[in-house]
Amino acid sequence: MSRGRPSLADVWQQFEPFSIGLHGRYTFCQRCKFCGSNVVDLIDQLKEHLIKCADFPANLKESLDLTTSKF
Q1: Would 69 be classed as within a structural domain?
Q2: What is the DSSP string of 5-67?
Q3: Which of 1, 19, 2 is CA-nearest to residue 10?
Q4: Which whole number is the average pLDDT over 11-15?
């Protein structure tokens, strides 16, 4: 990917989608496959979570170029 950014599909593969309903409104979220944390389904928040996730393997961080925050 250009400019050292991981593709959206590569980031989303690390999460499982779900939604939370409250008073007839739904918030779309993603659950980390590694630590189980729930993150709102916004790509910048998903990337930030992967950078900080202690259970996310370092070799995947390197392959996705998530070793430092660039966004």
Answers
A1: no
A2: PPPHHHHHTTEEEEEEEETTEEEEEEEETTT--EEES-HHHHHHHHHH-TTS-HHHHHHTT-S
A3: 1
A4: 95
- Residue that is written with structure tokens 């496959």 in the block: 33
pLDDT tens per residue across span 23-64: 888 889 999 999 999 999 999 999 999 999 999 999 998 888
Cβ 37 vs Cβ 31: under 8 Å: yes
Assigned token pair, 32: 């980390």
Residue found by looking up tokens 């900080």 in the block: 52
Structural domains in the chain (count): 1
* Cβ contact 71:47 at 8 Å: yes
Domain that holds residue 46: 2-63
